[in-house]
């Protein structure tokens, strides 16, 4: 016993000495916790974890609530300088590159590429300072991020399979009862003769038991009764067919056919997840139509003078489109009528001291409105170059937040798609949006001349102004459209630098 006690005290003294040298407390040195084992297993001074620099999901637009991680541009272990691109994030407007705010090393990516619906402030990555070992970064406890496609957990186990012989029969019977569909004629035949509808073989569309199926079952039952002589059989008990029971989900057993003449498989569909841009478009359109009293006014504009001016400019190698003239005319009209260049705020009318024209551009991800800033002071050539560059960036998803935020007036042109006229939805918090249709040739009476009235062909275009009735009433909208038509039909009022 003395020898055992001596050996025990000797080894305990050695362990105490080693713990003191490695900087581990006595209690943690003798405990078996995972933290102490991780610290002591990596050496005397190398087991300490490195404090991380947290990288969170930023707000890349004022209306952004969540984002999608499209692509990581840095890998774990890469050096990162302030201003370097870390990843591409799909916001509610476009795909924006997220830049680093600090120098360091990307140590851990917590939210992988393709993750959708990442809320603002969520921890998406960890960095360490320069010169520190990024492999020893301390990962916070709140590491898990809720993604749209999460694997099944133990909290939702699969239902156990029963081995009772009668259970499958009951489930099959219940399912057949729920899926039973009869035509009126078939129901009458089966009820009259007391036949079990479950014995009928359905040949109708989507599992419908038709009249022919019921007659076939009746003939088969008659053959079975007349074939062998048997004892008197008690009359069959009356059978009442209950209507099909709707599933617990509340949806019909078989969905309606979406393609006439081409019935699809029952219950099959393809669910396409909505992008952030599409969800925000849906929210803003719903907000606009439900909270803004829309008023509409239309007017026809003669594009003959513009067509002549475009031909003259083309000889001087100046290429501008009709839409560029429309943008310029709208901006000049807003400058001449500042009471239309307003916006609705929580306290009421808010007059704007800038004229930024938002142009609607269709992209694969949805409609987006890049902004031509200070359009009233820009020439046609500058407007044309800016509009072309912004439209291309919008289709590529490369717009910066300042390039699509802060517009004061919107223009939506569907003339190139063959639309003669339409009404657009106001883009809140703006007060107006101008819907532009296509051009058409019409015969009209020319102004009076010494020879009398003369018929001439005019190139007309219909524009419709959707205005917020709280800010722009019908009389003000009419005067604005008249001013816009005057500026458009007199292109000499528009300067070409």
Automatic annotation (TrEMBL):
Region (Disordered): 150-169
InterPro entries: 2-oxoA_DH_lipoyl-BS, 2-oxoacid_DH_actylTfrase, Biotin_lipoyl, CAT-like_dom_sf, E2/Pdx1, E3-bd_dom_sf, PSBD, Single_hybrid_motif
S-adenosyl-L-methionine recorded as keyword: no
Pfam families attached to this UniProt entry: 2-oxoacid_dh (PF00198), Biotin_lipoyl (PF00364), E3_binding (PF02817)
Catalytic EC class: transferase
Enzyme Commission no: 2.3.1.-
Entry annotated with the keyword Transit peptide: yes
UniProt superkingdom: Eukaryota
GO biological process, one term: pyruvate decarboxylation to acetyl-CoA
Gene Ontology molecular function terms on file: acyltransferase activity
The Peripheral subunit-binding (PSBD) domain, residue ranges: 181-218
A GO CC term assigned to this protein in UniProt: pyruvate dehydrogenase complex
Cofactors named for this entry: (R)-lipoate
CDD domains: lipoyl_domain
Keywords for this protein: Acyltransferase, Lipoyl, Signal, Transferase, Transit peptide
Signal peptide range in chain numbering: 1-29
Subcellular location: Mitochondrion matrix
UniProt family annotation: Belongs to the 2-oxoacid dehydrogenase family.
Name the record gives this protein: Dihydrolipoamide acetyltransferase component of pyruvate dehydrogenase complex
Source organism per UniProt: Sinocyclocheilus grahami (Dianchi golden-line fish)
């Amino acid at each position: 016993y003395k020898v055992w006690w001596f050996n025990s005290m000797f080894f305990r003294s050695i362990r105490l000495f080693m713990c003191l040298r490695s900087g581990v407390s006595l209690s943690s040195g003798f405990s078996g916790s995972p933290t102490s084992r991780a610290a002591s297993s990596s050496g005397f001074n190398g087991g300490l974890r490195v404090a991380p620099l947290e990288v969170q999901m930023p707000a890349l637009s004022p209306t952004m609530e969540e984002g999608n991680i499209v692509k990581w541009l840095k890998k774990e272990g890469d050096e990162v300088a302030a201003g370097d691109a870390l990843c591409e994030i799909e916001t509610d407007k476009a795909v924006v590159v997220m830049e680093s705010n600090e120098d360091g090393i990307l140590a851990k990516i917590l939210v992988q590429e393709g993750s959708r619906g990442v809320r603002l402030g969520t921890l998406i990555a960890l960095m360490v300072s320069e010169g520190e070992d990024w492999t020893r970064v301390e990962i916070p406890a709140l590491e898990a991020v809720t993604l749209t496609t999460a694997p099944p957990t133990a909290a939702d186990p699969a239902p156990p399979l029963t081995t009772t012989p009668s259970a499958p029969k009951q489930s099959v019977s219940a399912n057949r009862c729920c899926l039973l569909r009869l035509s009126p004629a078939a129901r009458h035949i089966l009820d009259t003769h007391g036949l079990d509808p479950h014995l009928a073989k359905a040949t109708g569309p989507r599992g419908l038991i038709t009249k022919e199926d019921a007659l076939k079952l009746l003939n088969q039952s008659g053959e079975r009764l007349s074939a062998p002589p048997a004892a008197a059989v008690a009359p069959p008990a009356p059978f009442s067919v209950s209507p099909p029971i709707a599933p617990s989900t509340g949806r019909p057993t078989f969905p309606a056919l979406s393609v006439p003449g081409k019935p699809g498989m029952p219950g099959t569909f393809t669910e396409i997840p909505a992008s952030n841009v599409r969800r925000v478009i849906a929210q803003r359109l719903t907000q606009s139509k439900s909270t803004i009293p829309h008023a509409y006014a239309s007017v026809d504009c003669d594009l003959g003078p513009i067509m002549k001016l475009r031909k003259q400019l083309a000889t001087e190698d100046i290429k501008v489109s009709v839409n560029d003239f429309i943008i310029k005319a709208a901006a000049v009209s807003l400058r001449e009528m500042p009471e239309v260049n307003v916006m609705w705020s929580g306290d009421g009318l808010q007059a704007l001291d800038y004229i930024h024209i938002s142009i609607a551009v269709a992209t694969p991800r949805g409609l987006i409105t890049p902004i031509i800033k200070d359009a009233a002071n820009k020439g046609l050539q500058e407007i044309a170059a800016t509009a072309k560059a912004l439209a291309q960036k919008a289709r590529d998803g490369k717009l910066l937040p300042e390039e699509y935020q802060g517009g004061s007036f919107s223009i939506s042109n569907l003339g190139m798609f063959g639309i003669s006229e339409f009404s657009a939805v106001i883009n809140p918090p703006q007060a107006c949006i101008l819907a532009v249709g296509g051009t058409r040739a019409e015969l009209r009476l020319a102004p009076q001349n010494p020879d009398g009235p003369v018929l001439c062909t005019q190139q007309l275009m219909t524009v419709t102004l959707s205005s917020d009735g709280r800010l722009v009433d019908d009389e003000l909208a009419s005067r604005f459209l008249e001013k816009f038509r005057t500026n458009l039909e007199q292109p000499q009022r528009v300067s070409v630098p």
